Amino acid sequence: AIPLVVSVSTSKAANEGFLIRNRTAFEQARNVNAIIFDKTGTLTQGEFGVTDVKLFKENYSREELLKLAASLETRSEHSIAQGIVEAVDETYEVSDFNSITGKGVTGKVEGKQLAVVSPGYLEEQDIEIPDREQVDKLASEGKTIVYVLIDDSLEGAIALGDQIRKESYEAVKKLKEAGIQCMMLTGDNKQVAKYVADELGLEDYFAEVLPDEKSEKVKEVQSRGLVVAMVGDGVNDAPALAQADVGIAIGAGSDVAVETADLILVKNNPNDVVAAILLAKATYRKMI
Ligand code: ADP
Ligand code: MG
């Protein structure tokens, strides 16, 4: 039989804005002393808007560069892609589309070989960024930067802004007060990560983490002797959610994340993570 306090906590959980998929993990939530949040879509709204387009050469106008990039991005489901597509009125046809997980997209548009990629991808390919200062300034303001390559020539950069959820500030503050370390994991670049981490007062962060490395980072934090909860929303986050002592998915996130998680937040509110941990503590204290 299900102990009374546990069944009570199930309905209470729903009231507090989360669902319990794995009761053992929920029990473990009372011991959590470190929380790793995914950045995009979890601590931030995950809704990108184009703020700046920088040209490195004079082969294309800003409008044309953005239109070419947007055409390619019509084929991607990434939130960055959505932001770029929304910035234009019309797009070209795309062929030979390819997505490089955690790094960007490539394909043919208007007879040209196009790539819209991360800073990490450029580094990996040893491609120099001209006018570094300009892009670094945008990144230090918390903007995400993607680069546009046309026929192997680095033509420009697109900056996109996302917003930190206002609930994230409160959630981090409360968790820290409860003695829980708050960290962040992201595939986005180091400067953006630093901006968000500083803004929220996070204790640690990992940037430019490729999707298949996310669960390794969770392991690394566990090896510090910490009981870790991971909060994420994306398909990419599923292995990290599985690795964590408590995996928490945002309900509006991908099906894969939701199916892997131990707890599901009904709304996209990081504050409900606090509610979940506090309820776990209260529930299992009563049982002993
Ligand atoms: P996150 O951990 O923030 O959800 P991802 O691992 O999905 O990030 O992506 C990491 C980085 O890869 C992005 O910040 C971006 O630079 C690049 N990227 C991924 N998908 C795309 C895309 N469709 N277009 C351009 N860049 C992309
Ligand atoms: Mg994400």
UniProtKB/TrEMBL annotation:
Compartmental location: Cell membrane
Keywords annotated in UniProt: ATP-binding, Cell membrane, Hydrolase, Ion transport, Magnesium, Membrane, Metal-binding, Nucleotide-binding, Phosphoprotein, Translocase, Transmembrane, Transmembrane helix, Transport
Extent of the signal sequence: none
Gene Ontology molecular function: any one: hydrolase activity
Source organism, top-level taxon: Bacteria
Main location: membrane
Plastid among keywords: no
Entry protein name: Copper-translocating P-type ATPase
Source organism of the structure: Fodinibius salicampi
Parent-record interval covered: 328 to 615 of 673
